[in-house]
């Protein structure tokens, strides 16, 4: 799954050439490893630090959802979405879609932080948007694979 890139000549031009996550060069290999590491770290964050407290009804999570008026149903729903997104970040054909879906969830979390909690932790969802956008863009070719898979089954 390598992308076609335009050859760049000269040393100054080579240093300025973009790193393509699917490239077969050593820079491309390092970029793939860094991207995969980022995906694993984010997946662990979403599964362990974010979804788990909601799914086990930790008092801190339950208190926040009660304050919003969403109760346990909202808490479990968000927990399941975060768990599914975290797991999907590790499945090659779902990586880009998962990153986009989690980005949408983070936009919602940002709005909730501003409206219900006076922006107390509003920076966290915004910070998470950056690596999620990077993953969504770098793994965008998997969207075509997913679409082919879905059309073949239909």
Give a verbal description of the structure.
This protein has 154 residues and is mainly α. 75% of the residues lie in helices and 0% in strands. It has seven helices and no strands. The chain has helices spanning 11-16, 26-55, 59-68, 71-88, 95-116, 123-138, 141-153. α3 packs across α4 and α5 (95-116) runs antiparallel to α6 (123-138).
Question: Short summary of the structure?
Answer:
With 154 residues, the chain is mostly helical.
List the helices and strands and how they pair.
Layout: H1 11-16, H2 26-55, H3 59-68, H4 71-88, H5 95-116, H6 123-138, H7 141-153
Keywords, please?
mainly alpha; 7 helices; globular; 154 residues; 75% helix
How large is the share of residues in beta strands?
Answer: under 5%
Strand segment tally: 0
Shape: globular
Q: Which series of helices and strands comes N to C?
A: HHHHHHH
What does the average pLDDT come to? 88
How many helix segments? 7
Structural class: mainly alpha
The biggest sheet amounts to: none
How far apart are the first and last residues' alpha carbons, in Å?
25 Å
